Amino acid sequence: SDKQRNTIIMFALDQASNQAESSTDATVAPMEEYDNVHLSIRLSEPLEKRLHFEVLQIYRFPYGRCAKLLLDLKPVSATLSLTYMQGARVLERSRNPIFRAAGLVAIARCNKRNVVLSDGRTLGERDLYQEALLLDGNQSFAYNNLGADLSKTERIILQRDGREMGRRELYLESLRCEPTHASALCNLATSLAPGEILTLPDNRKMNEIELYLEAIRVTRDGPECLASTLNSLSVALSATDTVVLDDGRTMNKRSLLLEGLKHDRTNFRLYFNLALGLDVSEKLTLPAPDGRTLGKRELYFEALKHNPDDSFSYNNLGTLLKGDETVTLLDGRVLTKLDCCVEALRCDPENAQAMHNLSKLATNAPVKLRDGRVFSKTDLLVESIRIKPTYANSYATLATLLEPTESVTLHDGWCMHARQLYVEAIRHDPKFGIAYFNLALLLDANNGAICLAQDGPLLHRRELFQLAWRSDPRDADYWNAVGVTMVKTSRLQHDALPGKTFGPKDMFVEALRCNPKLGIAYSNLAVEIEGREKITLSDGRVMDRKSLLGEAHVLNPKDRDLIRKLVNEMSDTETLTLSDGRTVTKAALRAM
Predict the structure, then answer these.
(1) For FRET with 123, which of 82, 85, 203, 230 sits at 20 to 30 Å CA-CA?
(2) Going by C-beta distance under 8 Å and a sequence separation of 6 or more, which residues neighbour residue 39?
(3) Phi-psi category of residue 95: left, alpha or beta, with phi > 0 → left and psi -120 to 50 → alpha
(4) If you compute the radius of gyration of the chain from its CA atoms, what whole number of angstroms results?
């Protein structure tokens, strides 16, 4: 029967692994997937006689596959598919320390909880790696996987020799055992700062990018792992960086991701990062045999198709939706902007960005998450800061919810008012333009000043507006605000616009180039123009004081101060045709 046959096969595997104790030169590379182990079995003698088995080979199979045992059992052949965990258990029962170490590593990869071994002991994941290293001090996978289980600052003492190691030292030790261990090369790359150079155990010196390139060159771990490494290399590059692969091809961020899809079309991170680097209106064509042309949204759809629990894909997809717009995923689910945030937090309750984005969508009513937690608008931002204390956006958004005299208590007990929250946002992101801008608005226009750092200079409104402007020369409000605080004869330069200088008039003209609907900029420019002077805007319009004030009135029809200025520019009998088609007189304006 099948049951009897499987019992015999499992007995055969036990015998085979025990007889392999004399083969000390073999190594095994287990892995994290629950792949099948195919065992080609031949019966060597009639079943009623004693069974003799011999392990012919134990391959060091690609990382991402389990060990493959080939047993020569003549003359009848059969094939059994064994789960990854069953194969790991067979190795763990071996008397051969090398095989047993490999089995322990395999079991650790399958179980994040405690497991009971064949000798009755109960061990957790890290203890399994430690036990594997006691049996085999050259178990490259044990060092690498143990390092991957540690946090960035965590250190561990090896039971084998008492050495204390952190992540980086464990990855280096893994490479000492196996210099071509692609996963260890990739993991080591993640521990390096940009530009940092590290000396490997074989005395080669490499930086982050070179480690990824070396991992791509030496990997024998199958297409999935190659695709993952290409993704990691792409993430490490800046928008303008390129690298040359071993085959001579020059690649940038996007081409590396597309190359990854040639090897693994199910890797959700490839789709996610392609979407991340794409403009909203841009599309790209996926490599053959797929060949589809997808935009930013569709790439997030693909990411969620291959990983329905990817928190950041939900969050980023939500940021693309406007107002009450909905989106239909590939699995048929229809989501609103708010639904995307809630789904993101279902997948990862510690997603600080999703918490922040949800707060911006929340009304005054409490928001209930899928895990039952209930938050107010303010509480969502406080929670976002608790999760990620360096997330500048949450400080700035929280500041906008407070009245000038109001304060909020953060998770660590700190009580902050709006000014302090903006300062904290700037501390975590020194190029955060809106934080400088809003902080300037909170200061007294005449003598208000604030210090952004201990022992730093006092900054007034003018300096804060200029810092906002220097952080982002695309924002019309920043150009306008700086223009207002300048004296007529002063001129400024911007690092992003070399060779140019800007006076107050230029500032307002640039503000209108960035946003032709910014009414206050027309009004401010009108103030700078003298007499019958005319000025040419970036869109080619030639305007005088009257036409500038008229355009400002069209954009802000209820601004009574603006109406008064326009009235003062007109004679009693004069009429003015506005850009919205209306013709107005001085008397009609006075009546408004």
Answers:
(1) 82
(2) 9, 13, 68, 69, 70, 71, 79, 80, 82
(3) alpha
(4) 33
pTM exceeding 0.85: no
**DSSP code of residue 63:** B
Which band of pLDDT confidence, cut at 50, 70 and 90, is reported for residue 241? very high
Mean of pLDDT over the chain:
85
pLDDT confidence bin for 3, thresholds 50/70/90: low
- The token pair at 508 is 């307002």
Q: Is the peptide bond before 289 cis (omega within 30 degrees of 0)?
A: yes
Measured in whole angstroms, how far is the alpha carbon of residue 329 from the centre of its chain?
Answer: 21
Q: How far apart are the first and last CA of the chain?
A: 98
Q: Please name which of 182, 184, 216, 209 lies closest in space to residue 194, comparing C-alpha atoms.
A: 209
Distance CA 236, CA 211 (A): 11
What is the tally of helices (H) and strands (E) in the chain? 26, 26
CA 50 vs CA 14, 41, 46: distances in Å:
14, 16, 8
Q: Does the structure show a pLDDT above 80 at 72?
A: no
Cβ proximity of 456 and 463 under 8 Å: no
Residue whose C-alpha is closest to residue 146's, from 100, 215, 205, 164: 164
Angle between helices 392-400 and 377-387 (to 10 degrees): 160
Q: What is the C-alpha separation between 360 and 373, in angstroms, rounded?
A: 18
Region 298-326 average pLDDT: 96
Q: How far is CA 40 from CA 9, 51, 93, in A?
A: 11, 16, 20
Strand partners, 585: 575
- What DSSP character marks residue 83? -
Q: Are the C-beta atoms of 521 and 511 separated by less than 8 Å? A: yes
CA distance 477 to 264: 46
Contacts of 368 (CB under 8 A, 6+ apart): 374
pLDDT over 90 (residue 224): no
pLDDT in tens, 539-567: 999 999 999 999 999 999 999 999 999 99
